[in-house]
Automatic annotation (TrEMBL):
InterPro entries: HAD-like_hydrolase_sf (IPR050155), HAD-like_sf (IPR036412), HAD-SF_hydro_IA (IPR006439), HAD_2 (IPR041492), HAD_sf (IPR023214), PGP-like_dom2 (IPR023198)
Record's keyword terms, sorted: Carbohydrate metabolism, Hydrolase, Magnesium, Metal-binding
Domain of life: Bacteria
Any one GO molecular-function label of the UniProt entry: phosphoglycolate phosphatase activity
Pfam families to which the protein is assigned, alphabetical: HAD_2
Signal sequence coordinates: none
Alphabetical list of PANTHER family matching this protein: PHOSPHOGLYCOLATE PHOSPHATASE (PTHR43434)
Protein name: HAD family hydrolase
Example of a GO biological process term: DNA repair
Organism expressing this protein natively: Thiomicrorhabdus sediminis
Membrane-spanning ranges: none
GO cellular component assignments: cytosol
Annotated SUPFAM superfamilies: HAD-like
Amino acid sequence: MSIKCVLFDLDGTLLDTSMDFTQALKKTCMEFNQPVLNYQHVRNSVSKGGLAMTKLAFPHLEGDALEEKRQRFLQHYLTDIDTHTQLFPGLLKGLQHLADNNIAWGIVTNKPQHLTKQLLQSFNFPSQPKSIVAGDTLSVRKPDPAPMFLAAEQCGVKPEECIYIGDHPRDIEAGINAKMLTGAALFGYLPEEASEKDWPADVFFHTPAEISEFIITKLNIA
């Protein structure tokens, strides 16, 4: 193993954004007199994206009517994007190790760039990511490998020298498509229908602390 770089998915892997999404969806439901969903129901859908979460709350809508609700949901989310969001407990030790050893790391997310930029402004990591590739940075997004290739290039490493860690089967597919080592964050926002047997990942992380342990013990330090 010659892993020189760690790439993270954002929501549900690096940052716990679920409560802010839940609150934004709650405000949207209340605005349009729709029943409010419980936290766990929303959490399980965060990694599917804003449209899926909106559809969860407004299952009877489609087309322009659904898009109207999605836009209101995203407006509410942007207003309070960092109220409850935090780094997953247990990851700081690993990020500190990356900083102490000058190891490149990055973020590859399907979250739109303006939301990604706004959210990350609130966080001071031990070292800054060398690459932040958002869902609209390129014309394609995960599971297409192009965002992964761009992140590796910006981090100054070959794709096969990276591990990509995410909490959705799409993330694992993207890593595999880019010939990267893949890690499944099983503590993240797993869809209800997902199970470990469906994930062809190389490594399984049941807690954020296990990611830190992997970073400390397995990465290649020049």
